[in-house]
Amino acid sequence: MSSSLYVIKIGGNIIDHPDALSTFLDKFSSIKAPKILVHGGGKIATKLGEKLGIVSQYVDGRRITNDETIDLVTMVYGGLINKQIVAQLQMCQTNAIGLTGTDGNSIPAHKRPVKEVDFGWVGDVETEKINTELLSALLHSQVTPVFAPLTHDQNGHILNTNADTIASSLAIALSSIFQVRLIYCFEKKGVLENVNDDNSVIRNINAQYYAQLKAENKLFEGILPKLDNAFSAIQKGVKEVLIGHADDIITNTTAQTTGTLIEA
Fold it and tell me: Where are the transmembrane segments (predicted)?
């Protein structure tokens, strides 16, 4: 087994605030171990879409990606946001490379099948096809991949893909080469036992305790997809998953974590 690898995902709560993003990237750059950054899209695509006359449609909080929208998110996620992050990382002396799942055939996916809802050009990752050889070569060359939340269907179409899922899929695929800690950064210090008390962080959760918390309806709905992704990743070879605040990223790449740690 090779060295440690951190797969770190940031969301719109950082992307939408330039000062918060700058602070985070400065801290991220100080992490000396191999690392991958996965970023979400934030509200920038929605705001730019409104200026272009493209109205965003959502079902259960998930964006419907029609022909106009996939062009929009490709420009904003894969272009504007991704390259701004890479430029700032270069300023911080981190040699980063901005990627989508199309680049180097790094993250193949397939278009989500139509069931109750047609989500359009939305992709589900084919984890077993992730190009680990390419990513390992970049990491061993001290190059930091920065992934936008886009994949491709191997038939010429770009697909809008959930950033949490991309992060967990990368972590799973690379767990055969590295000892991986997958880190989800969001606006809380970790998973809270009491949603109204920011200091009620649950330091460790195993599958049994998670089932109990869900049965008792103690967890707020927004954290459930992250925890489901986390336990899926652990079951498929990821060593550790950490859910915590972006401000705590340096501490959460050490043994003395402040967020919620899920271990294999």
Answer: none
